[in-house]
Structures are given as structure tokens and as C-alpha cells.
Design brief:
By secondary structure, the chain is an all-alpha fold. Helix content is 78%, strand content 0%. It has eleven helices and no strands. It holds the Pfam family SURF4.
Length: 269
């Protein structure tokens, strides 16, 4: 009974947090979610020659195609971020960023690197949640029209987004024998399973946001490494990818788990 009371207390705190931040949370979630695309688009501008030369050397595709690749990444990512933040043509922006993820997965040979592939899929999960949010916004425009219940595409987008976000956490697992690593893996795995199946979803997602934020700031502190060192870019890449997944989890907190979840099924019991 004591454990149940503690869980109920934690859910009350989470609900109170949501009530206070209701107006700002979706905006913060979107900003976090697009941060990795924003950073990468800006990097394409400042590292134009290096990126073009890398693609040209790797794929032997010639100067013109390599330049087109960098330009497409720059315009596609920055343009998509502007549209999402301004709430214009969000669905088209999401599809465009899906295309950028697929293009980079092939161009940078991420397909054969399991860790980076899982992180890119997790990014895709965040975009799916953003698509679901844009559908619910469009639906709210017709609030007076009778509804047959939540639309299937939206609720399956939310399910797919939640499941794909799991992949980000899996890349953070540390297979060490020390107590802290074992505890981190056990608690983190339990939380991410709760998010995936949609049970106590908002509380679990909010806890994961705090956890991932702490891990991100501690392990990916790229600002402590001089800019000329390769580790600076690696940590920066990890930092913004993790921030994007935090944005996806914040969308789960703001939107709820959707129709395909244990939380929703509990209401029918």
C-alpha cells in the first residue's frame, strides 16, 4: 500500500507540473526535437567545403552532386526547422526531415553502424510524435463536428513514436559490472518499457526526460573540449541527438500515450 501511495503521489506531482507548463511544454518539446536538425544545418554552412569533399571522396560522385547533397541538407534541415517552429506546413516539414534522415543514413554509411542507426530511428520516432501532434491540432479546428473517436493513423503514429524512442535509450546502456551501471540499466529499462507499452506513461516519460537531461549534460559536455579536437564534434553530435529524443519524450508527456496504450485501455476496465 505504501508503494501505491508513493506512485499516486508521484503522479499527482507530474499532473501538477503539466498543469503549470501546459502552455509552454509543446513549444519546448518542438524546439528540443528539431535541435539536432538545426545544429546539423548550421554545421553544413560552416563546414561546407569539408562536407562536400567528404561526400565527393566517399562516393566518388563528383563536385556537382556532392555540392547538391550539402545544399539539400542545409536547406532541407533549416527550412524544416523554421516551418515546424512557426507551425506552418508541419506535416510536409516532417516528411522532409524523414527524407534527410534516410539520405544521411545512406550517405554517411550509418546503416552499418548499429548505434547510430538506432539513434536515427529514435529521431524518426520523435518526428512521428510531431506528426501525431500536428494531426490533433488540425482536428481541433473542427471541434464542433461529431467524432467517431480518435483516428487510427494518429494513435498508431504515437505508438510507433514511443517504441522508436526506446532505441535511443538502448544505445546508452553500459554493460559494466559496477553497481551504478547496473542500477542505471535496470531503472532506465523499466521506465522505457513503461513508455513503450503506455503504462503510467506521462510519469515515466517525465522521469526519463530528467534522467536523459542529466546524462546528456554530464557525458556529452562538448563545450569542455577545444573545438579543434575531433571529440568536440562527436560529443556535440551526441548531445543534440539526445536533446531531440528528450523533445520526443516531452511530446509524449504533453500529448499522452494515445489510444494504443495500457493507460487508455485501463479507462475501459
Amino acid at each position: 500500500m505504501g508503494q501505491e501511495d508513493l506512485m499516486n503521489k508521484a503522479e499527482d506531482v507530474a499532473d501538477q507540473f503539466l498543469r503549470v507548463t501546459k502552455q509552454y511544454l509543446p513549444h519546448l518539446a518542438r524546439l528540443c526535437l528539431i535541435s539536432t536538425f538545426l545544429e546539423d544545418g548550421i554545421r553544413m554552412w560552416f563546414q561546407w567545403n569539408e562536407q562536400r569533399d567528404y561526400i565527393e571522396a566517399t562516393w566518388n560522385c563528383g563536385y556537382f552532386l556532392a555540392t547538391c547533397f550539402v545544399l539539400l541538407n542545409l536547406v532541407g534541415q533549416l527550412g524544416g526547422c523554421v516551418l515546424i517552429l512557426s507551425r506552418n506546413f508541419v506535416q510536409y516539414a516532417c516528411f522532409g526531415l524523414f527524407g534527410i534522415i534516410a539520405l544521411q543514413t545512406v550517405a554517411y554509411s550509418i546503416l552499418w553502424d548499429l548505434k547510430f542507426l538506432m539513434r536515427n530511428l529514435a529521431l524518426g520516432g520523435g518526428l512521428l510524435l510531431l506528426l501525431a501532434e500536428s494531426r490533433s491540432e488540425g482536428k481541433s479546428m473542427f471541434a464542433g463536428v461529431p467524432s467517431m473517436g480518435e483516428s487510427s493513423p494518429k494513435q498508431y503514429m504515437q505508438l510507433g513514436g514511443r517504441v522508436l524512442l526506446v532505441l535511443m535509450f538502448m544505445t546508452l546502456l553500459h554493460f559494466d559490472s559496477n553497481f551504478f551501471s547496473i542500477l542505471q540499466n535496470m531503472v532506465g529499462t523499466a521506465l522505457i518499457i513503461l513508455v513503450a507499452i503506455g503504462f503510467k506513461t506521462k510519469l515515466a516519460a517525465l522521469t526519463l526526460v530528467v534522467w536523459l537531461f542529466a546524462i546528456n549534460v554530464y557525458f556529452n559536455a562538448f563545450w569542455t573540449i577545444p573545438a579543434y579536437k575531433p571529440m568536440h564534434d562527436f560529443l556535440k553530435y551526441d548531445f543534440f541527438q539526445t536533446t531531440s529524443v528528450i523533445g520526443g519524450l516531452l511530446l509524449v508527456v504533453a500529448l499522452g500515450p494515445g489510444g494504443v496504450s495500457m493507460d487508455e485501455k485501463k479507462k475501459e476496465w
